[in-house]
Design goal:
62% of the residues lie in helices and 7% in strands. It is mainly alpha-helical. The protein is elongated and about 55 Å long. The model has no long low-confidence stretch (mean pLDDT 95). InterPro entries: Tscrpt_reg_HTH_GntR, WH-like_DNA-bd_sf, WH_DNA-bd_sf.
Length: 121
């Protein structure tokens, strides 16, 4: 995974795990790899991954069983809400960025519509 200098690494790793939950790579009830395994995978300090796991638990996305590890919560509503929140964040960033080019709302809708129609072909 390549990290972007614009956001803290732990947030980027959290987003990657959230995406894996949303797209079903990580399913409800799945055990997350250990902090050490994930630190090696992402080539980061284990303390960074410890923070990731703490934040995911604080956000009620995962839970920890002492001596066993961290697991994805078995809550379909949480996954639906997570998907909506992440989609909203992506859209907000897109709109903010494209408005910097001078596009108005109608122009933005037209660009998106054209792109979606292009993908259907």
């Amino acid at each position: 995974m390549k990290f972007d200098n614009k956001a803290p690494i732990y947030i980027q790793i959290m987003d990657k795990i959230k995406i894996d939950i949303i797209n079903g790579t990580l399913k409800p009830g799945d055990k997350l790899p250990s902090v050490r395994e994930m630190a090696v995978k992402f080539k980061v300090n284990p303390n960074t991954l410890q923070r990731v796991y703490q934040e995911l638990e604080r956000e009620n996305i995962t839970y920890t069983q002492r001596g066993t590890g961290s697991f994805v919560r078995e809550d379909s509503d949480m996954i639906i809400n997570l998907k909506k929140e992440m989609a909203s964040e992506v859209i907000e960033n897109f709109i903010e960025n494209i408005k910097e080019f001078g596009f108005g709302n109608k122009d933005i809708l037209k660009i998106v519509e054209d792109k979606l129609n292009e993908e259907e072909k």
